[in-house]
Amino acid sequence: MDILRIATAGSVDDGKSTLIGRMLLDTKTVFQDQLESVERASMQRGDDYVDLALLTDGLRAEREQGITIDVAYRYLATPRRKFIIADTPGHIQYTRNMVTGASTADLALILVDARKGLVEQSRRHAFLATMLQVPHLALCVNKMDLVDFSQEVYDRIVDEFEDFATRLNVRDLRVIPVSALHGDNMVSHSPRMPWYDGPTLLHHLENLYVASDRNFIDVRFPVQFVIRPKSLAHHDYRGYAGQIAGGVLKAGDEVMVLPSGLTSRIASVATADGPVEEAFAPMSVVVQLEDELDISRGDMICRVNNAPTVAQDLEALVCWMAEEPLEPGQKLAIKHTTRTARAVVKELRYRLDVNTLHRDESADRLGLNDIGRIKLRTTQPLLCDPYSRNRLTGAFILIDERTNRTVAAGMIAAAS
Hints:
The chain has helices at 16-26, 32-44, 60-65, 95-102, 120-131, 151-165, 201-207, and strands at residues 3-10, 72-77, 82-87, 107-113, 136-142, 173-177, 220-222, 225-227, 239-243, 248-250, 254-258, 262-271, 274-275, 278-280, 284-289, 300-302, 309-320, 331-336, 339-353, 358-360, 371-384, 395-400, 405-415. It is of the alpha+beta class and 416 residues long. It folds into 3 domains: 3-212, 3-Layer(aba) Sandwich (Rossmann fold); 220-302, Beta Barrel (Elongation Factor Tu (Ef-tu), domain 3); 309-415, Translation factors (Elongation Factor Tu (Ef-tu), domain 3, Beta Barrel). The strands form 4 sheets. Strands 7, 8, 9, 11, 12, 13, 15 and 16 form an 8-stranded antiparallel β-sheet that branches. Strands 2-3-1-4-5-6 form a 6-stranded mixed β-sheet, sandwiched between helices.
């Protein structure tokens, strides 16, 4: 059974947490004591309905303010598929949290309040989802019960979003009218919207085809750990553990190890459950080679004639996540796949206004939640691909070595 990773997005009070709560309830993923706790909390707050958002908003500050602050991960399963849902915040000051939740998502679930239509934060999150190259978008026009299930309101929002989407790189878009609070078009079709003949939200999520989103062409296997057992019975065993970032690995394949450039053949591939004939992204495996080579953490196994770029100069889009601004000349640590190095910010090319998509080339710094394009120089070569080709080998984080805090998430645009 495959897993679909979902990130919710949208503005404040568009109903993201309520929608996830409804999915948890309708797929019978909520325990009775959890539901009773939410019912009590709703009564204490004076609500005349069960606030399903309380199933996901776990922080006390979130419940008091009625907003989502941190990324909350929820897990549910149906007979067809398993789901990991990241409930991301809608407030502008928590943009970095939304980026975190969407960075590994297969689908971005963008909610729009039917009464308000597209607002600034809806556009912002739609842009961020496409910038992070989330392959699939589902636009949920929520709170249809508050506009009398009007097809005219729905059509107007669809036209407005499709016009905005022409400026974005949207690969796949599905629009669904829902009422998360009452369950309309969530699991079964709503009789109150007979004019809508598309799939329900759960049907769309269960049947979304995501296998083709993976990169099965470029073999990329960053070595995370070298396994050398201490026992005499296995003294000659040498395995390389890690998560496949691209391509397919199988015994007999000729491979090359970077940065050394040495070549060998794969002797075996195994998972935690034992040997497998072949493995592919994003499986975690142990690879054995026919030859004993000098390989350590941070090295990468790839095809002989299909290697990543070995680069120390990077151009990248970054989302800045720290209170202190990013400025040219700043020195930071960079973590890319399993390799860590130091880096210096050589240049800030521009700051991007995610509302207008305007590039401010006069900007001399990036503030909290700002997105911009920068040039980096690293102390060690990185084994990377453009983010547009591989989301795993094209992504990195920047770390402040003084505090050990992650201060930026980056997407490689070019490397040399």
